[in-house]
């Protein structure tokens, strides 16, 4: 079994921190444009808050790498959920915009129909006015013709009467000629009366017919005027409705323009968010790959940890054996210490006795030297008399 590396777990944790720092730096470096709108500012601030939280999480030494990975996965899951919520809101706005555009197109179609019907009513009104005017002119023309005919007949009758009177006044040629002329004049007058009666009958008939026709035309004209007034009332009502519709259309156009501006803004934001989501998805994939690598490293660390646990168990067994041996040696050492203390006491006793004996020996040596000196003195004393 291979020996465990003491710094393996620490190195893997440092690798995780470095990977997360690199990822945060890479995401921060992609913020090229400063935020312009309130939403972009909020997203920018949220991104920096999340980055700060991630850095604080990475820098926290009291949390295990597995717990850090779990928290980071939760953070990315929340980010993805927020992006999906934004996509849902954008879809709802697009649906509302499409409904508004559909309503606008329907109102435009209705407005076109109303304008077409209004133009048709105007054309009919003009045609009725033209027909009424033509009929009125025709009736006036017929009345003028009849007046001219009557005036012409009256004029001819007056001329005939004048001629008769003049001829009567000139009746100086005799009674027979006068009677003959009177007969001729009466015959001519009767003929004129017949012609006049016929013409009067014809004129009366014509006038009656013209009067009936004029009455019919007048009735038609009144009916046409009534219809025209009704059409004008309807047209005025439709104009009012058209004005309301135009107001509504103008309002809807204004709202549509606003919605189009909002749609363009939403499309721009959507494109930007889709780009950001694409980048985040790519970053998430890379982070998932990093997490997979870290999981492999964690699995490797777990395997090494299992090996270390096995080795630790063996070491614990060896430590227990060593402890037992240590207890044995402690007991033996204690016994040896007791023996040593006994020997030390014995040595101290022997040392003391040796010191005493040394002192006695020195005293004996000193006494011996003194004895030798005395002996020497005695020898000298003995030798002196012999010399003498």
TrEMBL record:
Keyword Coiled coil in annotation: yes
Coiled coil: 207-241, 277-381
Xref: Pfam families: Taxilin
Protein family according to the UniProt entry: Belongs to the taxilin family.
Classification via PANTHER family: GH01188P (PTHR16127:SF13), TAXILIN (PTHR16127)
Keyword Disulfide bond: no
Key words of the record: Coiled coil
MF annotations from Gene Ontology: syntaxin binding
Organism: Gracilariopsis chorda
Region (Disordered) location: 120-148
Highest taxon in the source lineage: Eukaryota
Protein name: Uncharacterized protein
Family annotation (InterPro entries): Taxilin_fam
């Amino acid at each position: 079994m291979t020996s465990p590396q003491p710094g393996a777990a620490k190195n893997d944790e440092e690798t995780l921190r470095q990977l997360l720092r690199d990822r945060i730096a890479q995401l921060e470096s992609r913020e090229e444009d400063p935020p312009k709108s309130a939403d972009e500012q909020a997203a920018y601030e949220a991104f920096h808050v999340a980055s700060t939280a991630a850095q604080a999480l990475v820098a926290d030494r009291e949390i295990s790498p597995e717990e850090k990975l779990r928290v980071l996965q939760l953070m990315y899951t929340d980010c993805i959920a927020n992006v999906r919520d934004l996509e849902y809101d954008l879809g709802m706005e697009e649906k509302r915009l499409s409904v508004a555009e559909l309503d606008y197109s329907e109102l435009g179609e209705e407005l076109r129909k109303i304008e077409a019907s209004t133009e048709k009513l105007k054309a009919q009104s003009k045609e009725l006015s033209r027909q009424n005017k033509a009929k009125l002119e025709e009736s006036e023309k017929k009345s003028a013709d009849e007046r001219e005919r009557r005036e012409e007949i009256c004029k001819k009758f007056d001329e005939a009467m004048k001629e008769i009177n003049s001829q009567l006044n000139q009746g100086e040629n005799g009674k027979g000629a006068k009677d003959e002329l009177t007969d001729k004049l009466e015959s001519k007058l009767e003929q004129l009366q017949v012609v006049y009666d016929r013409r009067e009958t014809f004129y009366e008939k014509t006038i009656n017919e013209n009067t009936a026709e004029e009455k019919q035309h007048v009735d038609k004209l009144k009916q046409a005027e009534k219809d025209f007034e009704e059409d004008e009332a309807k047209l005025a009502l439709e104009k009012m409705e058209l004005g309301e519709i135009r107001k509504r259309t103008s309002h809807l156009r204004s709202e549509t323009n606003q919605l189009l501006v909002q749609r363009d803004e939403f499309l721009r934001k959507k494109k930007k968010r889709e780009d950001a989501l694409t980048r985040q998805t790519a970053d998430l994939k890379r982070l998932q790959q990093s997490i997979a690598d870290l999981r492999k490293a964690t699995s490797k660390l777990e395997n090494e940890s299992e090996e270390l646990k096995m080795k630790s168990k063996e070491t614990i067994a060896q430590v227990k054996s060593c402890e037992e041996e240590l207890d044995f040696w402690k007991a033996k050492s204690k016994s040896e210490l007791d023996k040593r203390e006994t020997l030390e006491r014995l040595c101290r006793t022997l040392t003391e006795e040796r010191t005493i004996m040394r002192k006695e020996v020195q005293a004996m040596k000193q006494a011996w030297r003194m004895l030798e000196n005395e002996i020497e003195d005695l020898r000298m004393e003995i030798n002196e008399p012999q010399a003498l």
